[in-house]
Amino acid sequence: MREDEDRILGMEDIVRAHHVLREVIVRTPLQRDAVLSAKYDCDVYLKREDLQIVRSFKIRGAYNMIRSLSPEDREKGIVCASAGNHAQGVAYSCKALGIKGKVYMPSTTPSQKVKQVRRFGGEFVEVILKGDTFDDAYDEALQACIDYGMTLIHPFDEPRIIAGNGTIAMEVMESLDKPADFIFVTIGGGGLAAGVSTYVKTVSPSTKVIGVEPLGAASMSEAFKQGKVVTLDHINKFVDGAAVKRVGGLTFDICSRSLDDVVMVPEGKACTTILELYNENAIVVEPAGSLPIAALDQYRDQIRGKTVVCIVSGGNNDIDRMQEIKERSLIHEGLKHYFMVNFPQRAGALREFLAEVLGPEDDITRFEYTKKHDKENGPALVGIELSSKESYAPLIERMQQKGMDYTEINKDMNLFNMLI
């Protein structure tokens, strides 16, 4: 780091945050995962921030910043905008420190998350639902700062937030007998990756720090590509804890100097990882928390025989999403396919499809005519689940041999999003 950059954020800030956070956080375990270690022929450790007091790392930065405010600023109160984990961390911190806060959340935020924020904040926090997006809520939060003289607690682009996040790396490095060879960390706005990489590169420059983004919201990757912070026009919001259109200016500056690589993980791959962690390890993670583990496939050769740490950033997963998670996983793994099929207008056409086109282990999971009052003259939406992805090519071949008139919906995202 250059001298002027040291003054913005240095190791001493992270050490100071570490002492402050002893008042409130859980020192989460660093656990060697036997299943993942065997799968990748290395030592894989999981830093379990999903076991944090608010089930995510966000309390570290939020508490560190709020705790540092002057008595005058504390008296005026704080404000934040968030659709989830940051709001919970801020709310918990407000109650712990006896500080009034306003938490702005999009009106589309699931009620379960709103209830959690109110529970953690109690009488000290007012939850205000505004707009349909995070940006709408953020604009309202900024206005509240102007109207009431309150301090904004930014979710990622602030030195004290980043320093609090960096305490995760401090705990990781203290818990290992030798420095990690690789550390994989989720990137949303970049606050977690900036804090972790700052500490790691100070105490162990040889450790490779790999940032991981969702493919549909790769704002840090795009910033790296263009050499500056940019705003993405559209993002896939599924990995809600990391779906950010624009990373922070400070976080970009730090990450561009201290990350060794940034990789992107398809949303469907994240879903597969969520299910595997639950089924094989009884670990519940949210989509953003699964990204570092999902990225291991891309580094399979490099990490063989190495010591690898994956930071599980959070476990606030809504159980109502599990069916969607399973569906996205099946599609990503090539096991679920949707077709729009125009069946021949003759008797027995559907029976022929079932008997001669479907494989012996293929299963129809969805079937509906698109024209409710004229079924014989309209196409049908057909969902097929395969026993293995190798069954796909024979299925297509049989449909073509039978002269079926079909459209593969999986390959047309506009049609897929409209129908599925």
Task: Based on the model shown, name its key terms.
420 residues, alpha/beta, six-stranded mixed β-sheet, four-stranded parallel β-sheet, 19 helices, 14 strands, disordered N terminus
Task: Tell me about this structure.
α9 (159-175) packs across α10 (191-203) and α13 (267-281) packs across α16. The chain has a 6-stranded mixed β-sheet, with helices on both faces. Strands 5-4-3-6 form a 4-stranded parallel β-sheet, sandwiched between helices. A 4-stranded antiparallel β-sheet has the order 12-13-11-14. It is an alpha/beta fold. α7 links the parallel β4 and β5. 44% of the residues are buried. It contains 19 helices and 14 strands. Helices cover 45% and strands 17% of the residues. It has helices spanning 3-8, 11-21, 34-40, 58-67, 71-76, 85-97, 111-121, 134-148, 159-175, 191-203, 219-226, 249-258, 267-281, 287-294, 300-303, 322-332, 349-357, 392-401, 413-419; strands spanning 30-32, 43-48, 78-81, 101-105, 125-129, 151-152, 182-186, 208-214, 261-265, 307-312, 336-342, 363-369, 380-385, 405-408. The termini are far apart.
| Structure class | alpha/beta
Could you tell me the mean pLDDT? 92
> Helical element count?
19
The end-to-end distance, rounded to whole angstroms, is 49 Å
Helix proportion range: 40-55%
What is the approximate shape? globular
Strand content: 15-25%
Q: Give a quick account of the main beta sheet: strands, pairing sense, barrel closure.
A: 6 strands, mixed
State Rg.
24 Å
Number of separate strands: 14
Strand order of the largest sheet: 1-2-10-7-8-9
Low-pLDDT ranges: 1-6
